[in-house]
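Box 3.1 A note on notation
Throughout this textbook, protein chains are presented in two layers. The first layer is the amino acid sequence; the second is a token string describing backbone geometry. Keep the layers aligned when reading.
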Amino acid sequence: MATATRTRPSAGEAGFVARGGSSTQDTSRFLDRWLKVWIALLVVVTLVVVVYLVAITNSLASINGNLAIADNAVSGAGGDTKTLPDQVQGINASLAAIDPALKPIPEQADRIISNLTDIDNKLNVTDGSLKDTSSSLTGTSGQLVDTAGILTRVLGNANTIRDTLFAANEANGSCGGGNACAPNQLGVQNIHQRVDNANRILTPAEADARNILAGLGIVNQNLLAICSTGTVGLLAGPC
């Protein structure tokens, strides 16, 4: 009858089995640690992103409010500047009407100077003639006749200049106090009234423009604040 013999593992084989089981446990623990580390990193990154998104949302909300203020200011300025072209066109029309009346003045002044020069020359001749009265009374009489004719022409030119200046100075009624000037109110005396009417419209427009500029300064500060944050700086580069 045969008997079964049980063989015991040698010392080397027992050590191999023990080391194999320990290696499996170490690998499992290593993977478990790495998984926990990655989960922690993901949580930290998520929190940082949430914080930056909240900050960016608040900045965008502030910018939206400032843009609403700027929009209201621009709308107000647009309402005040609608009549500017008509006012400027009226001023230009007034100046254009004055210009033809003033253009002949230099030419007439040149003629006056020329006539006065002639008078001066004639008077010099007359003065020389009067020094020798006994021999030049006939010549003096002729020179006086010529002088009288020149003075008559000068007087006529002076009257023409006076009439032109009176026409240019004609007020044709007052149009001040914010009232629009009529087309026939083109006199020189109405220039300051037309300028005053234009200033009544330009002054509110200037105030609105200053408000817009202040609003844009606030928007620029908010944009610089957003640009200087870490996340935007990394994505878009230096401001």
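DSSP finds six helices and no strands in the chain. The chain has one domain: 54-236.
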